[in-house]
Write the C-alpha cells for this entry.
Amino acid sequence: MMVHLAIIKCLVIFHVLNNTETTNTEMCSFRPHTDDCENRGWLWDCSFLSLQTVPRNIPEKYRNTSLALDLSGNKFTTFSSETFSRVNIKLLPNIKALYLQYNNIRIIRKFAFGSLENLCVLTLYKCNLGKFSLANQSFANLTKLKVLHIHYNAFEHLGYPDIEISRILTLKSLTLGVFKGFLFSDHFRKLTQLEKVILFKEKSKFHLKKSTFVGLSNSPIYYLKLYFRNLVYCDVSEEIFCSFPVLKGVFIDFGGMCDLNVALLSLKCLQNRTMDYINADENKPRHPEREIFLNKQNCKYLFNTCTKNVTLSKNRISRISDNPLKTRMGQCMEYFDISMNRIAFIKPDIMVDFLTAYPRLRVLFFMFIDFCTIVRKMINYSDPIRIHFKNRPIFTINLSKHLTVLQASKTDIPPLSFPSVDFTLSGERLKELHVPYTNFLCKRVAPIQTPSLEVLDISNNECSKIKYPILQFATKLETFLASNADLDFTNNLIMEKIFIGLKRLKIADLSKNYISYLPPTTFVDQRLSLSTLYLDHNELSTIPVSHLQKLDHLYLRFNKLTFLTKYDIDNLLTLNKNFKIHIEGNPINCECAHISSLKWMKENQIRFGDLKITLCNSKSVPLAEFFQEKVFIEFEKKCQANIWLICSLIMLVLLLTTILAAAFVKKYRVHVDYVILRLRSRWKGVVHVVNAKTFQFDAFVSYAEEDYQLACTTLYGELVDLGFLISLPDIDFIPGISKAEQLLQCIDDSRKVIILVTENFLKSGWDTYAIQMVVTHAFHNHREKSIIVIIKDDIPVERMPKDLRYIWWSITSIRWPEIGENVMTFLQELSTALHSN
C-alpha cells in the first residue's frame, strides 16, 4: 500500500512540474533578430522564465527560418547531449545563435551542443564557468561556430579553458575577460581563422608581458583594442605587439595608472609596419606627477611607423620638442589629433609644418595656448590683398594643399599685434574648419579663400562686428555653426547678406545669439537647400523664415513665442509640407484670446516635433495633453461662454450709453441745438461778434401763438410808437427755414429779449425751448441782463419756468397792467428797461 502511494505521489509531482514547464515555455516570445553572424530571422526569447529544460516546439510560422534561442537568466546548471533531445528535430538545424548568459552552469559535457550543427554564435558570459567546467570535447562538432562570448566567468585562478576553445577551428571572434596572470597559451595557435579578440576588464590588476599574447601569433588579428584603464601595471613590455604580425590598428588605454610614455614605448614591434591607425587617447594617470613632452626619445617607435591616423588627445602633452615631418610617420600621416592637451610650447616651425608641409596630412586637430607667434610666422607679407577693402592690408595664411579638416577648438588666439592688419585663410582643399572657443577674430577676418569648404564652426566666439562677407567665396558650404557667437542681424547689412550665394547650405546653427529680428532675406538663396535651422535660445517672438522648400526641422526652442499670428501661420504654410517645428521652452499662451492660434496648432500637430514637452505658460500642461479632444472641447466651451459674457457686457454698455445719451440730449437739447446752430453758422461764413455795440433790433419778443394779438398788435404797436425797433417771429421768421435757427438769429440780432409770460405761454411747449435758448445765448455771450420778462395774468414767480427762476436775480421783470391801472407807467418801465445797458 505504501509503495502504491509513493508511486502516485511521484506521478503527481511529475505532472505538476511538467505542467509548470509547459506553462513557462508558452511564455516565450518571438521578435525579428539579426545575430553576430548576420543571420536574419527570429529571436526565440525564453529568457528569465526559470526554465530547467529547453522548450520543445514553436509555432509553425517561425519554423522555416533562422532562429536565435535565448535561454539566458534561467536555471540551467548542466548541458549535455541530452539537453536538446526534447526539441523538435526539424528545428535544430535552424538554431544558429544560442544565448546562455546568466545561468549558473556547473558543467558542459561532451558533445553538449553537437546536435546544433549550424550554430554560429554561442554566448556563455557570466555563467560562473571555471577552466574545468568544460569537459573534453564539450565544443565538439561545432564546425560552423564563428563567435564565442565567454567572458566574466571564473577563469582567474586556473586560466582560460584553452584546450576546449582551441578545438573551435572555425572561430573568428572571441570575447574573454582579462585578469591577473591571464595568458593566451600555445593552444590558441590552432585558431588560425581568429580575426577579432575582444578583451573585457575584470577586477584584478595585471602585467602585460612579452608572452601574454604569444598564443595569438598565428591568428590574423588586424585590429585590437586594449582598454585596460586603472588595471594595468606600468611595466608593460615593449614587445607585447610582437604576437600580432598582421596588426593594422590598435587602441591603447593604459590610463589611470600609467601615462602616455608607457603606451608609446609599447610600440616597438610595430616599427616599419604600415598601420591604419594608432589611437593612444587619454593615457594619463589619476594623479599625474609630470607633464608629457613629445620628443625623439619617447616617440622613437611611433615615428618609425607608417601610420595613417594618429590620435594622442587628452594626454597632458605640454610640449612638442621634435618635428616628425621627415620621419616615416610624418610622411605617411593623414590624420593627426593632438587636441585637448593644452600645449604650452611648440616651436613655430613645427606648427607651421603641420599646417602647410605634411605631404599627406588631411585632418588636423590641435589645441594650443600661444598661437599668436605661430600666426605671425605664417603670415605671407608678400601677398597683401588691398582691393575693395578700403586699402587696409589683408594678409593670407596659406594652408597645405592636402589639408581637408582643421580642428582648432579651445585654442586661445590673442589679438594680433598689427592693429591695422586684417587676415584671411587660404586652403584649396579644406573642407572642414572648426574654431569654436578660440577668440576667433571675426572682426579681423576677410573673406576666407576656401572654395572646397563644406563645414565651418565659429561657435562660442565674439562675432558681433563682422566687417566683411567672410563666406563670399565658400560657395560649397553645407554646414554653418555659429552658436553663442554674438551675431547681430539688426541694422547690419553685412550680416543680412552673409549667406548670399551659399546655395548648398543645408544646416545652420544660430542658437544663443540673442537674436530678436531676422531679416526676411537672410536665407533667400537657401530656399532649395536648407534642411535644418537652429534658432534656439534667442529672443524671437515670431516665425522669422518662409519659403524654405527643403526645410525639415526648424528649432525655435526657448525663445519668446507666445502665440502664432496670421503672419506666422502664413510663413509656416510656405515651408516644406513635412517639416517639423520645435518650440519647447517658449511661453505659449493658452488663453481664449489666442484661440485661433491654438486651433491651428491643434489641427496641425503633425508639424510640431515636441508638443509633449512644450508647456502652456499659464496652465503648466503639455500642449499634447491640452490638444486632446475632450480637453480642447471643454476649453472651447469655456471660451464661448466668455465670448457671450463679453458680448453681453458690451451690449449692456452700449444700451446704457444709448439711454444716457438720449437722456442727455433730451435734457440738454437746447444746449446741443445751440452748439450745432453756432457751428452751422460758422460753416456758412456767418461770423458772430460777442458784445457787439450795434444791433439790428432793440428787442426780440418771444410769446405763445395764442398771444399773437397781444404781442403783435398791442405790445408791438406801443413799442414802435415809442421809437423802438422790434423783432417778432410772425414778422421776421422766413417760412422753410428752421424755426430754431431763426430764433437764434433774431436773438443774436437784438439787444434785448422780451419774454411775454401768460397762461397761454406756460401751457405751450414752446416756452421751455425758447426760454432755454434765450438763457443759453445770454450766458454764453455774457448778456445775462438782456432778458426782460413781462408777466401777465398775475402769474406768481413760483409758476415761472425753472430756467427763468434759476437766473431770476439777473432778469428785469415788469407786470402787465390790469384793467384800470395806468398803462403809461408800464410803458415807461419797459422803455427804461430797453434803454438800459
The chain is about 25% helix and 15% strand. The two ends are 152 Å apart (CA to CA).
